[in-house]
Design a protein that fits this description.
By secondary structure, the chain is an alpha/beta fold. Helices cover 36% and strands 25% of the residues. It has a single domain, classed as P-loop containing nucleotide triphosphate hydrolases (Rossmann fold, 3-Layer(aba) Sandwich). A 6-stranded mixed β-sheet has the order 6-7-8-3-9-10, sandwiched between helices. Strands 2-1-4-5 form a 4-stranded antiparallel β-sheet, with helices on one face. A hairpin with a 2-residue loop joins strand 4 and strand 5. The longest helix has 17 residues. The chain is globular. The termini are far apart. The structure holds adenosine-5'-triphosphate (ATP) and magnesium ion.
Amino acid sequence: MNATSGEPLLQTSGLTLSFGAINAADGIDFILRQGEHLAVIGANGAGKTTFINICTGYIKPTAGCVMFAGQDITRKGPRQIARLGVGRSFQLPQLFLEHTVQECLQLASVARSRRISRWIPLARNADGHAVADMLELVDLTSYRDEPAAVLPEGHRKLLDVAIALMLEPRLMIMDEPTSGVASEDKHAVMQTIMAALRQRQVTSWFVEHDVDIVLAYATRVAAWIDGRVAADGEPQAVFNDPVVRREVLGER
Ligand SMILES: Nc1ncnc2c1ncn2[C@@H]1O[C@H](COP(=O)(O)OP(=O)(O)OP(=O)(O)O)[C@@H](O)[C@H]1O
Ligand SMILES: [Mg+2]
């Protein structure tokens, strides 16, 4: 199912969206290739989440298009785009807090197979092996029977990613996977997420403010300024860019 590494997987041309006087997306031309792990950096309000929202069907651009695996997805909705192979995790994890960790993954499993039924118990309709494998993959087996509500923030982030991975995406887009996680836990959370993505051969793009995390896990960095890609390339080169140092990192 995976295309050859290095082939364009997601491509945007001329993506444009304004909120009043703010250009949240200002004609973005962008290519993400199979096998990349891209970090998107940028100041608050630069348009990072807006770009994700357009590429995942949550909002429509006023101009431009988004291609995924050779298909135009610009006008498709979030569910259709998810089914085509684009997974997403959120700045604030979107969990069914009253359900246990295992039940959250069972729900994702039945959603994937469209076997949701009010009459058949969740555990019987879900793919038990896939759920158990996913629990192992993201180190949540020991939390299996805990309600999602009681998980520490780092484990909630892992669960949010695991739910998206149950749909077997080719691309995983993560909006600030370490935000809200205690600083001493950030690396461990990211380590687990990235190992899971690599194991499943999923291309990724994540928004991240922590420079150390970006340098540790990204194969490429793109810097957003005012709805535009201001710098894009090898991580250290982007962090050495004077415009990035001034506008994104806030150096004088
Ligand atoms: N639904 C909306 N209505 C009006 N303005 C919006 C809306 N969504 C985003 N904006 C504005 O568009 C700009 C880009 O916002 P966006 O959320 O994409 O930024 P971001 O880079 O993700 O920021 P952060 O780092 O704070 O998450 C901001 O000025 C924001 O206030
Ligand atoms: Mg954002």
